[in-house]
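Please, does this match?
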Amino acid sequence: MLNPFRKHPELIVHGAHPLNAEPPLPKLRASYLTPQDLLYVRSHGDVPKLDGAAHRVGVDGRVARELSLSVADVQAMQSRTVRAVMQCAGIRRADLRAVRPVKGDPWAAGAIGCADWTGAPLGAVLEAAGAEAGEGLHVAFMCADTCQPSDGGAPYGVSLPMSKALHPDTLVAYAMNGEPLASEHGFPLRIVAPGWAGVRSPKWLSAITVQDRPSGAHQQAADYKLFPPDMRPDTEDLSRGITIEAMPLNCAVTAPAPGAGLKAGGVDVEGYAVASDRAVVRVDVSADGGRTWTQATLEDHGASRWGWTFWHGTLDLPPGEHEICARAWDAAGQTQPALPDDTWNFKGYLSAAWHRLRVTAA
């Protein structure tokens, strides 16, 4: 049972080997639930072609009994469906790149998507193995893909703190939007850790280990850290990096397009906002670079702790060039920094300033 690779022809490809690609923003905004073939693809090596009928996941470490689970074993457990955003820690890196050079692919605002993920709670899998659950423990994952040398040159590996692993919404997932995972999205099994960067939701899961320390794999120990703005590649100091877990409040304009020529007058503006596990309570849009603001309308697509919020509004654009901006507010009254300069870091992670684009009205 091999799952075919499915890549939408309109994906914007940042790298072919390994494949890193994102959808055009209008396509992304067309549906509240992101179709599999339009979900961004982040790979650290070649996409493995796995046989779902033969694939097994080992569970070991600080457990009472080691397990070797088939996909059918996981599917036989009580299932749970969680609606959650998946997003890359490098989303909107292109905005930071415009400030000064950064490492990594120039992701725009499309390295994100929202889906209904179905699987067995990771906590149920750990319980079946009799895992210890004390404070300070971690759950490490090893995967079936081999990373490029620049990404460690070994099987992909990360970990979650035990508290996140045991959250009932953290899944060993086998389906997205009611259909089996596509190969590029982790077939046959992946972790889904809602609200956290996609790096913490590893694909092609092959092993789960309960241990007293975070994973020693490259992706956990030596990458995906937020460094201070004074640091550069030649002065990288891992001890000064913050491990990226929960994602920040963010917002993006999906229409109109950057550089668009528009008819003067009322112009429709739309986009998405996301706030990890907090609610988005307001989105503001501006036609003059943030000097004045108009409140957008938040769309109701049903309550979802881990989902995103679609919004729309209208701006009155007289003839001329305009800088459209959008910013979101969450339930804690927090909003976004105004400029990408404020959060620049040499790896280009967690870009979440006001989303800006220039258009011309005539």
About this structure: The domain at 250-361 is CATH 2.60.40.650 (Immunoglobulin-like).
